[in-house]
Amino acid sequence: MTTVLIAALLQPALADADPGTITCDGTPSCVADLRDVIDLDEVGVDVWLGEAAKAAVQRMDEAHDAAMEDDGRGLYYGNKLNPEGKDDLSPQDCTTFVLEVIGQAFRAAGLEDEWMTIFEAAVENSGEGGFKGIELMKALQEHGGWQGAYFNPDVSHPRDASDEHPYSAYLAEKNGSYYGVGIDHMVVDYEPTYGSKTVEDEAGLEWLKGVPFGVVAARGGKHMAMIVDGDIYEVHWYTGEWSKDVITQEGFESWEWLSGAIVFPTAQGVTPVEAEEPEQAADQDEPGPAGADEVLAE
């Protein structure tokens, strides 16, 4: 089902429409009214892509909520639900949401060929098991030059006590990658767990709040989302069109997935902060016991 949905997202149905005659209002794959979001010639492609993607995320969320208020049902529903009676709606999951937004931004910039190169590379590298969002992030870096950042609110004392978080931090720092996504910046310890002795790095959280747009992966791509001005936007695939929570927005610091990676257009105005090396508390052993390299390395 996801493969069919992804194929549908590639149709640039309104890419050549006259921006003066079309108002997209959150319609899937409509790009015409994104062209005027910011002056492409003035800011350059990277900045423009970030601003257009940001506008697409917010527009889809707001349009769904507006439809809910007007008609009692939104524009989108989670694609794990029965599609019967929903022919006029758009099924989404966390990955198709990201693909929709990125595709809109590239097509609105007139970069259809570049987008297809990125998408096809991601499809090929995903293999036969189905499309992988982490491969999209890698393709955006390889073919689009996007940068990557690793994030983790409390490396040594994660709120959910999962070994995934200290192990992934250890490997991201050591190898400069997260499940194959290149890591240029480490943003860690910005929201220590209650009672933790971790030294808070406030600069890291301020940087995250200043990211205009980025694609986010947690648990190696098990879940995908997007960050807009420091807030997480994500789709919930078991939520129906009668709920505003098909697409949700929340502050990054409270996101339950905790750690992962962000990729973002390199020149979109972001000046990442390199976190200072905090003084390590006495009970904080180096993450990554013997064999940790094999736990998360591809």
Primary descriptors:
disordered C terminus; about 15% strand; disordered N terminus; about 300 residues; two-stranded parallel ribbon; seven-stranded mixed sheet; alpha+beta
Written account of the structure:
- The protein is of the alpha+beta class.
- The chain has one domain.
- Helix content is 36%, strand content 15%.
- The chain has helices at residues 2-9, 40-43, 45-71, 94-108, 112-126, 133-144, 164-175, 202-209, 292-296, and strands at 76-78, 90-92, 147-152, 177-178, 181-182, 185-188, 214-218, 223-228, 231-235, 247-251, 260-264.
- The strands form three sheets. It has a seven-stranded mixed sheet with strand order 6-3-11-7-8-9-10, sandwiched between helices. The protein has a two-stranded parallel sheet with strand order 1-2.
Walk me through the topology.
Elements: H1 2-9, H2 40-43, H3 45-71, E1 76-78, E2 90-92, H4 94-108, H5 112-126, H6 133-144, E3 147-152, H7 164-175, E4 177-178, E5 181-182, E6 185-188, H8 202-209, E7 214-218, E8 223-228, E9 231-235, E10 247-251, E11 260-264, H9 292-296
Parallel strand pairs: 1-2, 3-6
Antiparallel strand pairs: 3-11, 4-5, 7-8, 7-11, 8-9, 9-10
Helix pairs in contact: 1-4, 3-4, 5-6
